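Incident log, structure service

09:12 report received: a user says their structure output differs between two submissions of the same chain.
09:20 pulled the input from the user's history:
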Amino acid sequence: AATEAEGSYWEIRSAQKLATDALTRASELDSTSPKLHVLLGDVYRQQKGYPDAEREYRKALALKAEDPGASFGLCLTLLADSDIEGAFNLAQSALQKNPDDPELNGVMGEILYARHDFSGAEPYLKKGLNTKPELVAHVHALLGRVYAETNRTQDAIAELKLGFADDRDGRLHYQIGRLYLKLGDRDLAKQAFEVSERMRREQLSNAAVAMQQGGDEGESQ
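09:34 re-ran on a clean worker, output below:
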């Protein structure tokens, strides 16, 4: 148990490097494949290499202008890199061609939430609930935040609970705690805050392990 975090760190780093190397080589062998550029963009985005991710998604769009996966990935990249207007313009254009695409609707809802347009975000997020299973919790969490911002406290709690799988650092539990306080339920609020604090400590611990191992890796080079 004492070495579990360290082992997980190196397993993830190894898998990420292998995935990046394999996809880079594959895209070199077949540079006309939009799908390979999208996959490589996804890897870079998950590693927070936003300029590299943006480059790969744009390569995919140059090859297939209406590729929804490339548009979705590029929207997420621009949003993560704080280019909210760029993400909005791209999502708006992509939705004109694919108005019922659940991933694009979900990301447009997230963009509008980031712009504090909560009433505008809601219908897009509801359509986005039909997205891939691994993304559903994130959309529920966003919809819960929209309900919280528009004073629908009970609905907000219900949606945020459906988004628990998206809670990496305890923020959703903390927000639910605040909502329970708003309803006057201190016991449930306390429980939510305790879970939030435990998750926050675990994330800090994992981050410390990653920083330490990253430093050790740099020294070994």
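09:41 both user submissions now match this output. Likely a transient worker issue. Closing.
09:42 reviewer note: The CA atoms of residues 126 and 143 lie 8 Å apart. The longest helix spans residues 186-220.
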